[in-house]
Automatic annotation (TrEMBL):
Domain spans labelled Co-chaperone DjlA N-terminal: 92-227
A Pfam family that the UniProt record links to this protein: TerB
Segment forming the signal sequence: none
Chain segments annotated as transmembrane: none
Domain of life: Bacteria
Name of protein: TerB family tellurite resistance protein
SUPFAM superfamilies referenced in this protein's UniProt entry, alphabetically: TerB-like (SSF158682)
Amino acid sequence: MLKMCVMGVRTSWRTVADGEFFCPDCGGDRNYLRRTGRRRLTVLGVPLLSRGAAGPVLECSACRGHFGPDALDHPTTVRFSAMLRDAVHTLTLALLAAGGTSSRAVRDTAVATVRAAGFADCSEDQLLTLLAALAADTGRVTGSYDGTAAGLCAHQGMDPCGTALAIELHETLEPLAPHLAPAGREALLLQGARIALADGAYTPAEREVLSTVGSALMLRPADTHRLLAAARTPS
């Protein structure tokens, strides 16, 4: 026997924006519609009384699932990859500033690390020129230098992790940290450790930078110390 629904609540949706997000149900990047709605009491399918606002929600264009606006807090796959590349680039510059750039081993390791992170065209000269530009333009690296990449290479007295560089490390790493598994955060710190260890033991300046990196990645100080000690011990 067919039963008729005499009374109910119906939501009328309206699209107010669109974009791309990481869909939790699909597990990948998808387009979405940002929608708001009005609930109305219906009698025999006819809308009568308003029952208030609904949403806003994000509606996935693929699975049609509805999610809260906080779903946009999760970066898309493309955005996450860019964040990770930028994080490696920033910590590499900070370590070059901390340890000086006179060591060929350090420079080679730095370039290889940045290339592996996704900047395939990165060169030694590009890194050194950027470091010199940061020093000259923003004061993020202090110390005497002649404004050239070669002069920067010869200099060893740079500020290990000046206030501006420390802020930049936090600004780059902290938004990334919640989206990395613990092993991912540890791996990022260890990439920095390998750069610092390329020419021997950590210097106090390099330790300061790596401690800042660990803090920005939301690692406990004890875990940061353990990881840096393990990286120093040959396997």
